[in-house]
Design a protein that fits this description.
Elements: H1 3-14, H2 18-44, H3 49-120, H4 126-135, E1 140-143, H5 147-154, E2 158-163, E3 168-173, H6 178-198, H7 202-210, H8 226-229, E4 237-240, E5 246-251, H9 256-263, E6 270-274, H10 280-288
Antiparallel strand pairs: 1-3, 2-3, 4-5, 5-6
Helix pairs in contact: 2-3
């Protein structure tokens, strides 16, 4: 085997990486250039003829190695920059895709919750409805020993904020159902007030007169059966905290404004009815009925 072929085989066996190939190429080019330019320079500097080839070869190898290393560094810098950009773009696309999938899942979950809520709202107890409506105005405390309230949490209608005591928790209304709760409440208020005026009686008219705002206490006598006209629950106006002395007449929450809008009169949220004001004839009529 010739010496040239042996040298080529040795060089090929040393090519273990692209970096080595780059160095070999740069050294080769540098040696070619060195033979053309450095040999004359070496002669002009007085280098002996027999040493010129060694000097030129060393200069070419040295210069080629330096240039090769610079090329490798530049290549690594460019690759690092490009790969970083590609990786960032890939991660951005991944994040966008994951966010889109998450948003779609959230939207589907919210839609399913809204359907469940609107379908079950009318079947909730009046106490649960009142709490849900109050939650459209503010965060409130619920006692979860009450199974009806606990069901609101289990159905994801409310969200926990913090524990107040062993049974009481501060809760907020799930934002998904806030608007439909407000809309349902407003519709119900209007419908109930419509019914109140649709079936208007003289007794109902007198109840509204009792609820009118007054600067002084009203001690006028009551000549109708107020107890059978106003019930403790469900009515637009309720009878509450009744004892042997009397009871309170109260507008249900946020009904006062609707009545004021309908009649143009100013009302008060509640008024105390002393049983001494009720005429015996009104009580007799109630007992006989």
């Amino acid at each position: 085997m010739s010496e040239t072929a042996s040298t080529i085989i040795k060089l090929l066996s040393a090519l273990t990486s692209p970096k080595a190939a780059v160095k070999y190429l740069s050294v080769s080019v540098s040696i070619v250039i060195s033979w053309k330019y450095f040999s004359e320079l070496a002669k002009s500097l007085g280098t002996p003829e027999e040493n010129i080839s060694i000097v030129v070869l060393l200069a070419g190898v040295g210069l080629g190695s330096i240039v090769g290393q610079i090329i490798i560094w530049l290549g690594e810098m460019v690759w690092s920059f490009v790969s970083g950009k590609l990786e960032a773009r890939k991660n951005t696309q991944k994040e966008i895709k994951e966010k889109a999938e998450s948003d779609l899942k959230t939207a589907n979950d919210n839609e399913a919750l809204l359907r469940k809520y609107t379908g079950s709202f009318e079947h909730l107890g009046w106490e649960s409805k009142e709490k849900l409506r109050e939650l459209t105005l503010r965060d409130i405390t619920l006692d979860f020993s009450n199974l009806a309230f606990k069901a609101l949490l289990e159905n994801k209608y409310v969200k926990l904020i913090s524990q107040i005591s062993n049974r009481n928790y501060l809760v907020a209304l799930n934002p998904v159902i806030v608007e439909v709760t407000k809309a349902t409440w407003e519709q119900e208020i209007k419908a109930n007030v419509d019914d109140y005026f649709l079936e208007m009686t003289s007794e109902k008219s007198k109840v509204l007169e009792l609820m009118e705002f007054r600067k002084a206490d009203d001690n006028s006598l009551i000549d109708f059966d107020i107890s059978s006209t106003i019930f403790p629950y469900y009515s637009c106006i309720r009878r509450e905290a009744e004892d042997e002395n009397g009871f309170w007449l109260c507008f249900r929450s946020y009904y006062l404004d609707e009545f004021s809008n309908r009649t143009g009169k100013e009302y008060q949220e509640e008024t105390w009815i002393d049983k001494g004001r009720i005429l015996p004839s009104a009580e007799s009529e109630a007992e006989s009925a």
